[in-house]
Amino acid sequence: MKKGFAILFLLAVLGCSKEESSDKFVPEKEISSKEPEKPVTPTHYYSIEEDGEYGYERAISENDQKNGVRTNAVMMARYLGEKDGVFSVQLGAGQSRNVHSCKTPCDFVKSKQYYGGQLINTETLRNAEGSVIWAIMQDAQRGQLVRYSASRHNNQ
User: Fold this and answer.
1) Residues near 111 by Cβ (< 8 Å), separated by ≥ 6?
2) Residue 94: which pLDDT band, with cuts at 50, 70 and 90?
3) What are the C-alpha distances in Å from 11 to residues 2, 16, 17, 22, 28?
4) Cβ atoms within 10 Å of 79's Cβ, excluding its own
């Protein structure tokens, strides 16, 4: 009798646990072991890319904010490439151009100003973190920019 009672008890326990597992509602989130997708963080500093040029936005100064300025013009840069560890970019087009170059780690940037194809000024500046030229050079060093080619782009 004890043996029969033990078998009935065992069947009742197994039957209950079977019913619980088959009738139990499991939300889909618990079934999936996949974590929710995180938003993609850009790996570059430029805001736009258009016709082989990269657009960078300057921060708005405190004075500009006080005067109601809410946005600045986007500065367009052409990546000229890297040679012997020196990265070069051009800002501006046409008669007035600025070519900025630096060598890794780019603590200083050499700036050459041209007008009508003639070099009119050269200066070397500290590459201040957070500045537009710093952001451009960071993108260049990290391989985020493609060399500008006038033959691929009609706008010069």
Assistant:
1) 98, 99, 100, 121, 122, 123, 124, 125
2) confident
3) 14, 8, 10, 16, 31
4) 20
The two structure tokens encoding residue 51:
């016709």
Q: How far apart are CA 51 and CA 116, in angstroms?
A: 23
Mean pLDDT along residues 94-117:
95
Q: Where are the domains of the chain?
A: 48-141
Pick the closest to residue 86 from 54, 112, 62 (CA basis): 112
| Cβ contacts of 15 within 8 Å, gap of 6 or more | none
Tens digits of per-residue pLDDT, 22-62?
444 444 455 555 666 777 767 899 999 999 999 999 988 89
User: What average pLDDT does this structure show over 75-101?
Assistant: 95
**Cis preceding-peptide flag for 42 (omega within 30 of 0):** no
